[in-house]
Amino acid sequence: MKTSRTGGGTRRWFIVIAAAVWVVLVLVLTAAEKGVPGSRINSLGDALWYSLVTMSTVGYGDMVPVTPLGRAVGVVFVLMGTGLFALLIGIAFSLLSGQILSGLRLRLGAGRNKYIFNVWNDQSRALTEHIVREDPRALAVYLKASQDALPGARQLHLEAAPEQAAALALRGRGRVSVFLMDEQVSDLEDAIRLSPLGVPVYCRVDSEPPWAVPNVSFFSPSQCCARRYWQEHPAESPSEQITFIGSGRLCRELLEQALLVNVYGERQAFVYHVIGDMDGFLREHTQLHFIASINSRESGTDAIYFHTTSWDQQLDVLEQSDRVILCEDDDAKDLELLIALRKCLTPGKRIHTKLECSERTREFLKDETIFGSVNDIFTPDLVIRQQQDAMARRMHALYLEGAGTDTPTWEELSAFTKASNFAVADHLFTKIRILLPGETFTEITPALCAKAYKAYLATQETELDRYRRIEHERFMRFYELHNWVCAEKRDNTARTHPLLCPFDRLPENEKAKDDYAWAILGRLEDCP
Fold first, then answer.
1. C-alpha radius of gyration, the chain, whole number
2. How far apart are CA 195 and CA 213, in angstroms?
3. What DSSP string runs through 108-163?
4. Fewest CB atoms less than 10 Å from the CB: which of 107, 395, 424, 502?
5. Cα atoms in the Cβ-side hemisphere of radius 13 Å centred on 432
6. Cα separation of 524 and 528, whole Å?
């Protein structure tokens, strides 16, 4: 269990040593005073009584040492009594202001919603600030932090393992959520231990695992960053040329998210260039050639060019790009690239840079497009996925309604199927932009959904076939990015699906099923 033990261990050793010294002094006092004329300390019991009376500062005076050694021991007992009194005051203050008070506040909570974090760092701080701002009943609990590091009365520190803190919080009123953000393998172990408690657990991982753990949601900072980027910086035309410079996980997530959300229909022809080592991405996506032509241009489809040479040998590509995205996993490299590109490329070239920087630096770079800061990524919307989860659940219910069944329930879905529904929710941004061209927005609101749904109904008669083709293309891309292939029968183990075929080959009833992904806009009036 990941609890802080340094302070407790020090106190225990101090108590053991003090007790040993006291026993030795009592024995010395007994030896020094026993049998001496005029002394009333003639046994171990007498010495023990004298020491307790003296150290407690009561001092009845019924016994006093008469020998020089005995009186010296008496002085030590007086000093120990003063130290003991100070120690007791310190312990009482520590208990009242520390663990006992923190545990009591966590248990009672005055109806607050408890958000338990297993670590205090920049990421948990950013997420806490967003949560406290949005939830007036929030109480943030940190299991790894000094009390001095926690600003605000709505935050406290508790030395406990995550499952212990969650069990304690469940005894009070209000919701309980746990965030595991220590970037360690032990976070996954804690998530598994927390699962039976039934509280929602959000576990940070580098990449989302393919298996499901009850009550546990996994989130990847790179994926959160990619989702936020395409929400705030959508494609401006269906034939945009976009160049990524990067080799790490963020670059892969940005490209994958682009392929999933930039689906506008048959008239699109996006051209993506990736400058960097993407061998791992190509190995992980064996069906990528079904989504886009690779290293070549074909009519009516997107194209992806992978460049293994350095960026300075691709200046023509960079100049022709509508935007350049600097997305190395190392911010220092991105800043160095930005400086170099500004010297080489035409002034005014659109360059978007992933960079974590201070407000002063951001002000200095105000003419640049900076994205991916901790405050932008670690938000309830991206980590808890409250809106995305609500929309995905609503979509699944609508799909079941159209299929004339009530199974499987959302809780019974596999991690892959849930991810599929999340992908549908992410593409709603694109659908709204298709229905409301020229509309500028970075978040989905009920009013925006209502406006888009009205446009959908008004154009349904003439554009229904196009809308269905767009949704079918989005559906196929998601499955093909996960290496599914077309076959006569669906087999989840073999990753085969009969509907991974051209739209024109679909039965009419299957074509109609894609309507749910657009009709959901009329069912989101009460989503958060």
1. 33
2. 7
3. HGGGPEEEEES--SHHHHHHHHHHHHH-TTEEEEESSS-GGG--STTEEE--S-HH
4. 502
5. 26
6. 9
| Its pTM surpasses 0.90 | no
Tell me what pLDDT residue 5 has: 41
Query: Which of 391, 392, 430, 398 is CA-nearest to residue 524?
Result: 391
Tell me which amino acid residue 406 is: D
What tokens does 314 get? 């691709």
Count CA atoms closer than 13 A to 54's CA, side-chain side: 25
Cis peptide, bond prior to residue 408, ω within 30 of zero: yes
Q: Where are the beta strands (DSSP E) in 30-175?
A: 113-117, 138-142, 155-157
Paired with 306 in beta bridges are 274
Return the amino acid letter for 305: Y
Phi, psi of 140 (to 5 degrees): -90, 130
Give the amino acid at 94: S
For the purposes of burial, counting CB atoms within 10 Å of the CB of 441, is it exposed (0-12), middle (13-18) or buried (19 or more)? Answer: middle
Contacts of the segment 90-98: beta carbons below 8 A, 24+ positions apart: 97/147, 98/147, 98/157
Model confidence at 219: pLDDT above 80: yes
Alpha-carbon distance 128 to 120, whole Å? 10
Helices (H), 378-445: 380-383, 386-403, 415-435
Between CA 205 and CA 122 the distance in angstroms is 16
Maximal C-alpha separation, the chain: 118
Q: What is the three-class DSSP state of 73?
A: helix
**Among 20-29, 49-58, 201-210, 334-343, the range of highest mean pLDDT:** 334-343
CB neighbour burial string for 108-122, b if at least 16 within 10 angstroms, e if fewer: ebeebbbbbbbbbbe
